[in-house]
Amino acid sequence: MTASSLTKRPLRAAFFAVLAVATIVAGSRLAASDHQDTPEVELNPRMDINDVYAFPGASADRIAFAVTTSSPIAGTAASFDPNLLYQIKIDNTGDAVEDLVFQITFDNGTGTAQKYTVRGPVAPSMTGTRTMLLTTGPVITGNVGTTTGAAPGTQVFTGPRADPFVIDLEQFFNIIPDRRPSIGPLSGPSTPTATAFRNPGIDFLRPFNALSIVIELPKSQVLAATDAGAKFGVWGTISR
Amino acid sequence: MRFHFSARLVCAALALPLIAACSDNDENGGTTGPTTTRTYQQIERLGNPLVSEVFFMKRDHGLHNNTAPATDVANGFGDKIKTFTNSFNRGPTIANTLVAVLVPDMLMVFPNRAGNTAGWLSWALANGYGGRRLNDDVVDAGLTAIFGNLLDPAAAVLPGLTSDNISTTTRTYGTTFPYLEAAR
Asked: What is the value of ipTM here, to two decimals?
């Protein structure tokens, strides 16, 4: 296998997707706590992780993870990029190296005909920034926009959901303009034009959606220890 | 729950000469998706909210995206955070506390602590569950930590910078799976 087996993104389709988003989205193309933070990610919004969440599940023995991506998306018809690998990585040994991963991929379908595949949580064959798909462990599939599974097992949902993040993004860039995107309505002057947030703030993200992944499962599957001091670190990644 | 045994996983488990016959090559643009025989390269990463976005100069966002938490300390993420807080003269207590909780950049969770103590950085501030809930106002939490006197009671509070003056009450979060609001 050679490096050229990395999928080449169809450039015309990516450009068209950018045009479509640019014409639909009246407000910012930036979103969430980590938005279009490099030029490449700006031009390919589906490569953008917006936020990662981890919180108690439906019962004390369960935990939920949510990853929101690609915001802002207007409308409910967006599909995940089948060339990307989404991962949720977990370090439960305290060395900042992942011990378990979830791997989420999508097929070429569109809308609710697109299918997701969730592998894991399983120890990865490679750690760090290079990854191969897991070949062992549980596999769950379903259609985008639907939930698969239920307690006491693993439950998965993927699909467009309302962007949960809230920030006065415009004013943030007025205060710290270095962080501005390079294109779009929030690109702008590189000198500060404000020294404080305005009151009330303006909530740009309210109308928009994010392609989201939600996984809930027994917490013992990510961390076997039961003492109160037991901990893990979690982060999300996108790879191609 | 539907588990299925992917044909591609079966192929990957077989002897090497069979992999070529089984793999999906999606470079021809019309196949069914990923293959278990290729290597993916990370292009984007997120752990804690706001770390890259607030603290890092734009030119360093690529560094964050193309690296893993295991190298955050060696890559000087602590110095980048300190550079930011020093530019606002926030002092060493605030700087060192932020570095201690945000580097390496992983969202920390203590899942055996009480669920009602969940919230971003609650593990550091109040021996809580940690993690991050959907309705955590991480913008205000982050701004207060940097520009307020939450982390250093002796620090000056910078007016107008400790909140962006929108709360998460403008959203409706679900109490049942999948918790996120339906798409608009």
From this structure: 0.82
